[in-house]
Amino acid sequence: MRCRAARRLLVAFQDGELSAGDTTRVAEHLTECESCRTREEHLSSITPEPLRMVRPSVDPDWSQMDAQLHHAFNEPAQRTTPVWIPARRAMMGMYGLAVGVLLIWGASNALRVQSLEAELVAATTAPPVETLMPATAMQPASYKPPASDGKPR
Ligand SMILES: [Zn+2]
To answer: Of 8, 25, 51, 97, which residue is least crowded by CB atoms under 10 Å?
Structure first.
């Protein structure tokens, strides 16, 4: 077997995927060729070993488990406040505060709009002339109305 062919088969050789004949030929080449042997060692150093299914060693001591379960079920549960509840309360408080501020702001805006509308109506609606200038002030000071007979008084 030539180096090129052997190197092409190296990964399959390591994974045990070659036929018996190819396995024998690659193994023979590796015993003869130091260059390919070095490459094979390098390959095996960088290729992870297949993970083995390891069955965990469990000692099923059922009586102890039963005792623990019994204890857990019969012990009065301690009421502990989860960490997130104060945070949620704070969030709700902030939310309520924001809603309140927005409501107050909106109400004050509505009042302001109402007063602006009233100002606009007052500014664009002319008051009666008498309120601006009484009738007596409409005559110049030097004006003397003629007497009914036409002579000045
Ligand atoms: Zn070789």
So the answer is: 51
Q: Is 10 exposed, middle or buried (0-12, 13-18, 19+ CB in 10 A)?
A: buried
Question: How far does residue 10's CA lie from ligand 1's centre (Å)?
Answer: 11
pTM recorded for the entire structure: 0.33
With respect to residue 86, please indicate whether it lies within any of the assigned structural domains. Answer: no
Residue 112 lies in a domain: yes
pLDDT, tens digit, 9 for 90 and up, residues 18-64: 999 999 999 999 999 999 999 999 988 887 665 555 566 666 678 88
Domain range for 111 is 91-125
Looking at residue 29, its pLDDT comes to 94
Residue 151 Cα, ligand 1 centroid: separation in angstroms? 147
Where a domain ends, among 46, 65, 81? 46
State how many domains the chain has: 2
Rounded Cα distance between 6 and 37, Å, is: 10
